[in-house]
Write a structure and sequence with these properties.
Layout: H1 17-21, H2 47-63, H3 69-99, H4 112-146, E1 148-150, H5 158-172, E2 179-181, E3 195-202, E4 210-215, E5 223-225, E6 233-237, H6 238-244, E7 254-265, H7 279-291, E8 295-301, H8 306-316, E9 323-326, H9 336-339, H10 371-377, E10 380-384, H11 390-402, E11 406-413, H12 421-431, E12 435-440, H13 448-460, E13 464-466, E14 473-474, E15 477-485, E16 488-496, E17 508-515, H14 518-532, E18 544-546, H15 550-566, E19 572-577, H16 583-594, E20 598-603, E21 620-625, E22 630-631, E23 634-638, E24 645-649, H17 655-659, E25 661-667, H18 671-685, E26 691-694, E27 700-702, H19 714-727
Parallel strand pairs: 1-6, 8-9, 11-12, 12-13, 14-25, 17-22, 19-20, 20-21
Antiparallel strand pairs: 2-4, 3-4, 3-7, 5-6, 7-8, 10-17, 11-15, 15-16, 16-17, 18-25, 19-23, 21-26, 23-24, 24-25, 26-27
Helix pairs in contact: 2-3, 2-4, 3-4, 11-12, 15-16, 18-19
């Protein structure tokens, strides 16, 4: 079922189907020696290069003319933003290893030095390709199909230039701070990911040149609107207006050249948590240091003056490999603003998440069932964003905050929104005298400052706040509510795959279980005792918890499928996750494949495992699904001779999730919910619109329906399914 303004058949714009499917490949698969053991480096792909290949699949959405035009522009912004984060974290981390003299090999047999060289080359190639997709494809299509133009100063009329020059004088000029570099003015601090102008100047009466840096102000819109007779929406980049008026900042000097540049700093600063007396203070100090961390990338216009480039390289301590030359605009993540334009025909048809039928109610009748009565009657499985987060999980927390019979609320917060109604409900509950305990993870990368601020607000309201565990990130997504019902204290739980974030719940696909199961209530209670107190040997009845026994549990489940296959049965594993890189678990999967277990893996991001590899993984298939929603849920299905074991939860099959994070996975027990999750997995595996097949060499091929074949778009099928279940 297709929405009227998406998946339009523009494939004729490509010469043939292969053009649509073609994609660069960053990973370099190695030849497998004869009879190589399961831990041989050739059996694993490089994680960093695999991540870049994932981002190539994201960028492909911007090139695919079957997508609505403004959504393609959004994918340009997403790809750029993804790459920024990758360079900060992954390139930064490799450089930190290099500086520390680390020579340990990655599972695929590469040193940090070799990986840096490969990653920088491929990341540079990707950034330049992003620029080409904008310059040669989307820029013109926006003008033709959306009447949106982004022009350079030189392309404007004299009247438009005069208007923008006046705007510069009145609004931009007073906010600029030119920073000279000379013996009396040291090279200025340049903030991470900010746009700047490098200005080469000359005094008329002196030899040599002077240098100044001008930061593009962030309190100005990136895209300045101008009146236009030719386009409905006409913009000029702010840096263009500053560049054209830069001489006004340096009277008495001659401007010889100016170019836009942008730096990326290392975000991989790690401290010894074991020696930290105060985890919160340690993270706060790390945030301060991150602002001044070493530069790991310089993006700069390709026409940069050689002397300016030499100065920047020296002052920023860069090599040639750290520099990416861009032909055109820098910082294309700012296209988010334009992609949000209210032009319905050029965007995905708006999706309004449906409230699950069990939770739906007309109006606000006083006699309507409260959410606790509903959950007590049956476990509820909610699937976001197809089903409403606000009408389910948020409702649970808000009703708990206001219910006089609720005695306590406990919850983990890994990431949450700036205007979080969840946090407001927790504060309200504490103010009403309920016991409220929250685990705020201050080590959630790039959310540290926000989480610290939320933690302080919660503490000020009387909430018991813990700030994570030494050596572990708390990544589990769990909430516990204790309610007085007659003479009993009854527990209600939410255990999910995604964060308590109202905005990402609209674009991330996640599953959550709302349950009154007393065993799960016992387990989640014990989990919070572990998180807030001292209970390293905590035991659990049903919940699978990392780093407690999650790895061992997965091994047992895989080995059970191997026994079934060995005995002539149908060994079966289906797993859906964000990424796959744990070497030991991959070896288990190779061994299971050799025993005849049929394994389907739905891995959105990178995979170290090589599927369909002769002698090792003929029975393993991997697909990656990329679409309008970000596939974020984790599902693990083990056939168990037609009595399937199914789990959902917060952890991927990654070493960090199994060893260095607190994760929680919940078994799905009710047959109706098992069937529903099985259908979700089968719909994903049959997708021929969003799915990419991974091959043994690490390359991916986009599935594309034949002319006679029905298009199966997994995400649209899930939309239709949620509507059908809500209104049937």
């Amino acid at each position: 079922m297709l929405n009227e303004n998406e998946d339009q058949d523009h494939s004729s714009a490509y010469k043939n189907k292969e053009d649509l499917q073609a994609l660069p490949c960053a990973v370099e698969a190695q030849e497998v020696p004869n009879k190589a053991p399961l831990d041989h480096p050739s059996l694993f792909l490089n994680r960093e290069l695999g991540w870049l290949d994932f981002n190539w699949r994201v960028l492909h959405q911007a090139m695919d003319r079957r997508m609505p035009l403004l959504e393609r522009l959004r994918f340009i912004a997403i790809t750029t933003s993804n790459l920024d984060e990758f360079v900060q974290k992954r390139v930064g981390g490799l450089k930190r290893q290099q500086a520390a003299g680390v020579f340990d090999l990655s599972p695929d047999g590469r040193t940090p030095d070799v990986q840096i060289e490969l990653v920088q080359k491929e990341a540079s190639k990707m950034l330049q390709k992003i620029s080409k997709v904008w310059n040669l494809l989307l820029k013109q299509e926006l003008e033709n199909e959306a009447s949106i133009a982004i022009s350079s100063y030189d392309d404007l009329t004299s009247d438009q230039r005069e208007t923008l020059n006046e705007y510069f004088d009145d609004h931009i000029y007073p906010t600029l701070t030119p920073l000279a570099v000379d013996p009396g003015h040291p090279f200025p601090f340049i903030s991470n990911l900010s746009l700047s102008l490098a200005v080469k100047l000359k005094r008329p009466d002196r030899d040599g040149f002077n240098f100044a840096r001008v930061k593009i102000p962030t309190n100005q819109p990136r895209w300045l609107p101008i009146e236009s007779d030719t386009h409905a929406f006409h913009y000029v980049p702010t840096e263009e207006i500053i560049r054209q008026n830069i001489h006004k900042l340096f009277p008495g000097m001659t401007v010889k050249s100016s170019c836009v540049f942008r730096i990326t700093r290392n975000a991989d600063l790690r401290r010894n948590e074991e020696e930290a007396e105060d985890l919160l203070a340690m993270i706060s100090e790390e945030l301060r240091e991150r602002r001044f961390a070493e530069v790991v990338r310089l993006e700069i216009e390709k026409n940069v003056d050689p002397k300016v480039l030499k100065l920047l390289k020296t002052e920023l301590n860069l090599t040639d490999k750290d520099i990416v030359y861009i032909d055109g605009l820098l910082e294309l993540s700012d296209f988010f603003d334009i992609s949000d334009k209210n032009l319905p025909n050029l965007r995905f048809k708006k999706w309004n998440p449906v409230v699950p039928k069990a939770l739906y109610h007309e109006g606000e009748a006083e006699d309507r069932k409260n959410i606790f009565d509903i959950i007590k009657s049956e476990d509820l499985l909610v699937h976001h964003p197809y089903e409403s987060f606000s009408g389910s999980v948020r409702r649970l927390i808000e009703e708990a905050a206001d219910d006089p019979d609720v005695l306590a609320i406990k919850q983990t917060l890994y990431r949450t929104s700036d205007d979080s109604p969840i946090v407001k409900a927790l504060i309200r509950a504490a103010e009403k005298g309920k016991q409220v305990a929250v685990l705020v993870e201050v080590k959630a990368r790039f959310d540290e400052a926000s989480n610290i601020e939320w933690g302080k607000k919660l503490e000020n309201a009387g909430v018991h706040v813990a700030y994570g565990l030494v050596g572990l990130k708390t990544h589990a997504k769990v909430a516990l509510i204790v309610r007085r019902e007659g003479d009993e204290h009854v527990t209600y739980c939410h255990i999910g795959t995604g964060n308590y974030h109202i905005h990402t719940a609209e674009i991330y696909t996640d599953l959550g279980l709302l349950t009154n199961d007393p065993d799960l209530g016992y387990d989640v209670t014990n989990l919070f005792h572990f998180l807030t107190g001292y209970a390293p040997d905590q035991q659990y009845r049903k919940l699978l918890v990392a780093p407690n026994k999650l790895r061992e549990s997965f091994y047992e489940l895989i080995e059970n499928e191997m026994k079934i296959a060995k005995n002539g049965g149908n060994g079966r594993i289906i797993a859906k996750m964000n990424a796959l890189d744990d070497v030991d678990l991959i070896q288990k999967l190779y061994a299971a494949s050799r025993k005849g277990v049929k394994i389907d893996l739905i891995v959105r991001g990178h995979s170290r495992l090589r599927p369909q590899l002769e002698g090792y993984s003929e029975n393993i298939r991997i697909i990656s699904i990329i679409g309008r929603f970000l596939e974020h849920d984790r599902i693990y299905y083990f056939g168990n001779a037609s009595n399937a074991n199914i789990f959902i939860g917060s952890g991927d099959w990654r070493s960090r999730n199994l060893n260095k994070r607190v994760e929680a996975l919940v078994p799905i027990m009710q047959e109706t919910l098992k069937k529903r999750i099985s259908r979700i997995l089968n719909e994903a595996l049959s997708d021929n619109r969003l799915a990419w097949d991974m091959h043994a060499d690490g390359t991916y091929t986009l599935r594309y329906p034949d002319k006679e074949e029905t298009t199966n778009n997994f995400q649209q099928e899930m939309m239709a399914d949620s509507r059908n279940r809500a209104f049937s």
